[in-house]
Specification:
This protein is mostly beta strands and 260 residues long. It is built from one helix and 15 strands. The longest helix is centred in the N-terminal third of the chain and has 23 residues.
């Protein structure tokens, strides 16, 4: 009886294994083949277009978001109001009277605010806005760009865009007359503002008493101090066709929707 029980047990194991193998075998047509990721990886911004919209009319008084970024560990948003009027060029155009700017800091470590703003027209349908941000600036500070006869901007009501940049300024900018590049223990961050005239901005790594360090533009480890590469001003696209908002969070794009 004992011998019979062992034989029956072995038969049950063999039948069970055969059944299990038969049940788990997948048809060839159901097997998923994964190709090499080298030929199947989507490059950043290669096939995607991201943008937002900015509504402009003569009565809308809302603050609308135009950009968001992070510096000094602080996430912040940049908002604007574009006040427009009918253009002298005709019904198909509008004229910009003024643009107001403000920021909101979210969970700040060092407050980041607006230093200045540059507004220009590029081509026939593009409003170029460069917002210069800076740490240790009151985030409640607003900036108002006002149109004049020399800076008047008229744009078509259809298919116009806002193309902008957020540019971060160093904390401790120094006058050129105070720059001494001969000192071995002195490090300066340099930003070329105009290659033709060689106009250059210089900044130091900390304030005079050394209590605040500019970590966005310098790296420090003990006595080792080096100025970082100015990637914020790097316009090298390396041959890649960029679709908005751009390769970094400093760039943004909005389609203008003009509402009567």
């Amino acid at each position: 009886m004992k011998h019979l029980s062992q034989t029956t047990f072995l038969l049950l194991i063999i039948i069970s294994c055969f059944s299990c193998k038969k049940m788990t075998k997948l048809p060839t047509s159901k097997v998923i083949q994964y190709e090499s990721l080298e030929n199947d990886t989507i490059q950043p911004h290669q096939a995607l277009t991201f943008s937002s919209s900015f509504i402009i009319n003569e009565v809308d008084d809302r603050w609308q978001s135009i950009a968001s970024s992070q510096n000094y560990g602080t996430n912040y948003g940049i908002f604007a109001k574009i006040n427009a009027q009918q253009s002298d060029l005709g019904e198909k155009y509008f004229s910009i009277k003024n643009i107001e700017f403000k920021t909101i800091n979210y969970k700040p470590t060092i407050s980041v605010g607006i230093d200045t703003v540059v507004v220009k027209k590029r081509g026939s349908k593009t409003l170029k806005i460069q917002v210069y941000m800076k740490g240790l600036v009151n985030p409640k500070k607003t900036f108002d760009w006002i149109s004049t006869d020399s800076t008047k901007i008229d744009l078509p009501k259809e298919n116009s865009i806002i193309r902008g940049e957020r540019i971060l300024q160093p904390l401790f900018i120094v006058n050129k007359t105070d720059v001494d590049i001969t000192k071995k223990n002195k490090q300066y961050f340099k930003r070329v503002l105009n290659k033709r005239t060689e106009d250059t901005l210089y900044s130091e790594s900390s304030n005079k008493d050394g209590t605040i360090f500019d970590s966005e533009f310098f790296y420090k480890d003990g006595h080792h101090l080096v100025a970082k590469y100015d990637y914020d001003m790097d316009s090298d696209r390396r041959g890649v066709i960029i679709k908005d908002p751009g390769p970094r969070c400093r760039e943004y794009n909005h389609k203008i929707i003009f509402s009567e």
